[in-house]
Write a structure and sequence with these properties.
- 2 copies of one chain form a homodimer.
- Chain A is an alpha+beta fold.
- Chain A has 2 domains: 172 residues, Beta-Lactamase; 169 residues, Hypothetical protein af1432.
- The first copy, chain A, is built from 14 helices and 6 strands.
- In chain A, strands 3-2-1-6-5-4 form a 6-stranded antiparallel beta sheet, sandwiched between helices.
- In chain A, helix 2 packs antiparallel against helix 5.
- The two termini of chain A are 52 Å apart.
- The C terminus of chain A is likely disordered.
Amino acid sequence: MHTLNDQRAFASESMIRLMRLALEAPDLGSAVSPTLQELVDRTAASGSAYFHSSNQVPTYHARAAAGALPEGPAMDAIMAHGLPADMPLMQALTQTRLPLFFDDTATVPEAAGFPALGVRSLAAAPVRHRNGSLIGAFLMHTFSPHAWSSDEAGLFTAVAETLAGLTARLAAEEDAVAAQESALRALGLGLEFKDHETLGHTDRVTDLALRLGRYLNLDARTLQALRWGSYLHDVGKLAVPDQVLLKPGQLDAAEWDIMRGHVREGSRFADALGFLPPSAHDVISGHHERWDGQGYPNRLAGVQIPLVARIFALCDVYDALTSNRPYKHAWTPEEAQAELAAQSGRHFDPDLCQAFLELLQHGSNDLQDS
Amino acid sequence: MHTLNDQRAFASESMIRLMRLALEAPDLGSAVSPTLQELVDRTAASGSAYFHSSNQVPTYHARAAAGALPEGPAMDAIMAHGLPADMPLMQALTQTRLPLFFDDTATVPEAAGFPALGVRSLAAAPVRHRNGSLIGAFLMHTFSPHAWSSDEAGLFTAVAETLAGLTARLAAEEDAVAAQESALRALGLGLEFKDHETLGHTDRVTDLALRLGRYLNLDARTLQALRWGSYLHDVGKLAVPDQVLLKPGQLDAAEWDIMRGHVREGSRFADALGFLPPSAHDVISGHHERWDGQGYPNRLAGVQIPLVARIFALCDVYDALTSNRPYKHAWTPEEAQAELAAQSGRHFDPDLCQAFLELLQHGSNDLQDS
């Protein structure tokens, strides 16, 4: 027989378990999934979902779901385009701190739209940003009218009060990481802004470097450092005068010295950022070193050159060869690959060069975007 | 009489309460403070503290404390410089998932250093980054030897397992926010990197704008937007050719057109960032508008110009006047203030101009740094 205290202890411990799972999850969707499953297991709900709106976008997208969801074209549209912020339910959630319970969606204006999905009873709890704005909603539903019991309401309310706060913080972390990423990429793009010839180079070379990194099974931290280093590899060119950076003809020896200085300037700039991991620095400081020791600025050779810099150098040269520049037309992929192969063991690490050529010729079986 | 289930329910509910408090706290220190107080209230601990290491810094700094802490020069040094990562306790914490309990610090090598502080019993729990590295430690202590009871150990372990996960996530959010801040500032500094005459301008003008914003009691979100806008106000100058940007003499009419283009280029760049709040955009797009409608690019007048842009314009002109430039010496603060006063109602919003002059002449009673 369960006493009230048994129930209290069980509910609280269950909540702590759900919070721990959420804290260990790699992303927001997996953080809330166990909670949605718990709602389906412990209430009459047929299904449950969490909808979230990132960074001022006026649409709430499904980030996780459990149990049975509505089906059909209207639901397909919601999964593709999200719930609009002006739908009555989301408007109602902006006005309340407590969850809303609708035993029959056909009878309440706040649930407009849900009967057409086949959803007949609905519970909805708001998730708010620390500034008070609505950023998400926990929903659970049945496909026939259902009177939500006080136990069900209690559980859902406890979820709303506890998990919602955690969800909001995880969302804040996600937003901050996305903004950091965007700011770092923008730093790289700052140069393209001036040097129109290199338009798109930063994103293309970052994409290539990540594809090669994943092909080599690098871990997530190294891939992150590779991505950040790729964004910033040429940031030191901001310090190169236009007359050298944008010169249409060949550079003379003095001008080459200035141009090569972009590597040291970039390292200095990366230092000033303060939070770049050493591997990201390595991409910036080492991307013009050569396997044969004839590169700059430090004439490192072979495996003295950090792995990420050796990876990046391949991608950087390949993108330069296959792009139009003032002084040359774009090479075809085949011509560029032949040049990489010719430079294997001279400019490039031969093992990495082989892997990169395999990747370019046969594609990667990792087709996910970064 | 308390049953075991009463105790379980109480402990779990207490943990949920502590997590909710942590989730609502504005920063990491205030997030863990209620937990430290709970440890002091519910165990024999005289005091408790949370030490944290941000972003690869090999030192753990006190971020929050409760109860009685050790006193004296050695403790002063710890509060000032932090606990070094190579001290035996921190080394021991890198090796364990479970908390460590020392009934008498004088007898265990892992607690070396603590007896000299007067700390005789100690409990320590690790906080880890998701990548597994140690980022912090919850500590509690007594000033005489004390055999930690199983209840005390149970509570401390529960804290370690639950709050530590949350603390790590809050730290991740804090790191990402700091990195975003640093990347945005670096974007602004990118220009100074090229235009050495403006060295320090970004930080000085940001500081002035925040001081004026706080003097005007702007809320935290508006201050953040003002700070980001200040970092980025001249980012569009990256698109201005060197021959115009760095020209030592007067610009001709065509060159002025190009120079004025930096405002629109900056807005375009800010759009590309994707996450800037509208008020930060307003600083970038509106900082060369004038109160009398004679500014650029949109010839806005009076309160058509967003408040943050009117605030920033004052600070930008003041810093330019009081700095050396190729074509002029730095004006004295008195000369610059006289010029601002003369431009009140012409270049500048008269109310804001008066407030800024008050602030410059009498100082702010808000002397905190941003």
